[in-house]
Design goal:
Helices cover 88% and strands 0% of the residues. By secondary structure, it is mainly α. It has one domain. Helix 1 (2-43) runs antiparallel to helix 2 (49-71) and helix 2 runs antiparallel to helix 3 (78-107). It is elongated. It starts with a helix and ends with a helix.
Length: 108
């Protein structure tokens, strides 16, 4: 029985590591894509440049936040939990501020 549990534990760690890497990759890709798209909107003097960029950044940060939440599954000690918790808090605050900016921009 302990062999099955250790095997399942190794499988879980590998699956979580793969999901973290996938979510990080998707988040970075979305942020890069929205940055380039926002730059082209800026060059064309589009009035919704700020809104387009903010929505892309918010979506990318959501994926990055998801990867940090998954990272809490595999942390081992309190120092790592504190670091991951701080990262989650910062990314959540950034996401909140970007969503607030989007709402303010859509009002105008």
């Amino acid at each position: 029985m302990p062999d099955i549990l250790s095997l399942l534990h190794i499988f879980l760690e590998n699956m979580v590591d793969a999901a973290i890497l996938l979510f990080e990759f998707i988040g970075v890709g979305i942020i890069i894509f929205s940055g380039v798209r926002g730059f082209f909107h800026y060059l064309r003097r589009s009035p919704d440049t700020k809104l387009t960029l903010a929505k892309g950044l918010a979506m990318g940060l959501e994926f990055k936040l998801g990867s940090e939440i998954l990272r809490t599954v595999v942390v081992r000690d309190w120092k790592e939990i504190g670091i991951v918790g701080g990262i989650i808090a910062l990314r959540a605050a950034l996401t909140f501020l970007i969503h607030w900016e989007i709402k303010e921009e859509e009002k105008q």
